[in-house]
Each structure stands twice: as structure tokens, then as C-alpha cells.
Amino acid sequence: MKVVAFNGSPRKDGNTAQLIGALGEGLRAEGVSLEKIDICEHRPRGCIACNKCKENRDERCVIEGDPLNEWLQEMKEADGVVLGSPTYFANVSAEMKALIDRAGYVSRANDVMLRRKVAAAVVAVRRAGALPAFDAMNHMFMINQMLIVGSSYWNLGLGGRPGDVAGDDEAMANMKNLAENMAWAIKKLRG
Ligand SMILES: Cc1cc2nc3c(=O)[nH]c(=O)nc-3n(C[C@H](O)[C@H](O)[C@H](O)COP(=O)(O)O)c2cc1C
């Protein structure tokens, strides 16, 4: 059983990564592995609205030069998908938006290939604007018929400097609970 998590922060060891790390720890305790992918180092570009994915229907985006297609296959093969982003001007990072638009569009062009994956979004935020970012990722999940798992609060952690989020006890408890719920759902779906 495996979850693939995409870190949309350019800070590889920042607060988003720490939230994903806490989630991964909780999942491992439940027998589910988590692979974290730091997308920013690959500079994924945005959708160019060519609609070739709808013509080709080969589970691929035609844009070359970043690993979006590999990430999409990783999502398809995983039991669960996590999208994690820092809050940037009350929304997701540009790289996370690129992933949402292209992966979401290609999935829908290919019989909704991400349908029924267990899914969760997590957000790091210094002060305000986390919920629009959280919503942006959940919108991608919902329109792709993915199964969003909830937790004790909306999945956000407070922190400005890298590592600050570790001091947000409620966020850490939220990640543990989220991990338990994701693992529970994955096991139920696997029968
Ligand atoms: C370009 C930019 C925009 C930001 N916008 C917001 C914002 O709207 N609200 C907020 O509370 N923090 C904002 N922040 C702070 C980050 O969300 C915060 O530092 C977060 O912990 C970063 O996560 P990371 O360590 O995973 O990169 C912004 C930071 C940057 C670099």
C-alpha cells in the first residue's frame, strides 16, 4: 500500500515538507508507505491549453522537459495521493498549480484515470490564506472523482520560517489522524 505525496514548496525541508513527513510517519505506523516528490526542483510549467491530451488519450501531457508524466503514472499506481503546498498570496505555489492543471486535465481526458484514489491536501501557512490553497487542491481531487479524506481540522500547519510548523501541536495531531484515516480508507478499498 502506497501513497505518493507532492511537495509544492521550493523549500525542500520547509514546513510543507514537515507536514508531509508527519503524515508519512503516521501512514508507516499503519503499514502504508509514503513517497515524497519535491516538484519545484523540476520547474513544472503550466498547461498550454493545446488540448492534445484529449486528442491523444495516451495518459500523457505533450509538454516535454519536466517529469509530469512520470508523476501522473505514480499517482495512477499509488493507492493514495497527497498534494502539499505552501500558501502563496492566499493560494497554492505556481508549481503546485501547474501540477493541478496538467495532471487534472490529462486525468479527465483519459477516462478520469485518477478516479477513486484516496486523496488529501495539506497546506503550510504563516498566518492567513491557507483555505483557498486547500480548496484549490481539493477542487482538483473532486472533479477527478477522487475520495477526499478528512481529519480533525482542515489540514494546515502554522509556521513562517522552515521548521516552525513542528511547533504547531494541533497540526501534528491532525497529520497523525489524517494518516490513520487515509490508511483506513485505503485498506477498506483494497478489501
Ligand atoms: C511568495 C510568498 C507568498 C506568501 N504568501 C503568504 C500568504 O498569503 N499568507 C501567509 O500566511 N503566508 C504567506 N507566505 C508564507 C508561507 O506560506 C510560509 O512561510 C510557509 O510556511 C511556507 O511553507 P514552506 O516552508 O513549505 O515553503 C508566503 C511566502 C512566499 C514566499
- In total, how many domains does the architecture comprise? 1
**Could you tell me the number of beta strands?**
6
Radius of gyration: 15 Å
For the biggest sheet, the summary is:
6 strands, parallel
Q: Which residues sit in consecutive blocks of at least 5 with pLDDT less than 50?
A: none
CATH topology: Rossmann fold
The proportion of residues forming helix, as a percent range, comes to 40-55%
Q: What is the CATH top level name?
A: Alpha Beta
Bin the strand percentage.
15-25%
The unique ligands bound to this protein are: flavin mononucleotide
Question: Structural class, from helix and strand content?
Answer: alpha/beta
Task: Summarize the structure in words.
This protein has six helices and six strands. It has about 190 residues and is an alpha/beta fold. The protein has a single domain (about 1-190), classed as Rossmann fold. Strands 1, 2, 3, 4, 5 and 6 form a six-stranded parallel β-sheet that branches. Helix 1 packs across helix 6 (about 170-190), helix 3 (about 70-75) crosses helix 4 (about 95-110) and helix 4 (about 95-110) packs parallel to helix 5. The model has no long low-confidence stretch (mean pLDDT about 100). The structure holds flavin mononucleotide (FMN). Flavin mononucleotide binds near residues 9, 86, 124, 127 and 162.
